Amino acid sequence: MRELKCGTCGTRVLVEKYSPTHTSVQWQGDAQSSCPEFARRAALGEPSSAIPTCHALRDSIERAVYDGVLETDSPRSYPVAGRLG
Q1: Which tens digits make up the pLDDT trace of 32-74?
Q2: C-beta separation of 32 from 38 below 8 A
Q3: pTM for the whole structure
Q4: Phi-psi region of 82 (alpha: psi -120 to 50; beta: other; left: phi over 0)
Q5: Over the chain, what HEC string results?
Q6: Phi/psi at 15 (5° precision)
Q7: Residue 52, exposed/middle/buried by CB under 10 A (0-12, 13-18, 19+)?
Q8: Chain centre to alpha carbon of residue 12
């Protein structure tokens, strides 16, 4: 995973881009306390589990892909049936 900073609020997350449509984001802390969009939506009563993404962060990730900072062909391995590892 690669560290990436949101271009809007500066929140730092870890990101891995497996394909153009599959992105994995790992927050470094609680999303509601570190992301203004999550905080705003939570304040409106939306449960954090129902908030799929921050639009500003998604735009920052797409910009990083466009700029070549984040590659979309990250290798992902899956276990082979009947084998460990």
Answers
A1: 888 999 899 989 998 877 888 899 999 999 999 999 999 886 5
A2: yes
A3: 0.78
A4: left
A5: CEEEECCCCCCEEEEEECCCCCEEEEECCCHHHHCHHHHHHHHCCCCHHHCCCCHHHHHHHHHHHHCCCCCCCCCCCCCCCCCCC
A6: -130, 140
A7: exposed
A8: 10
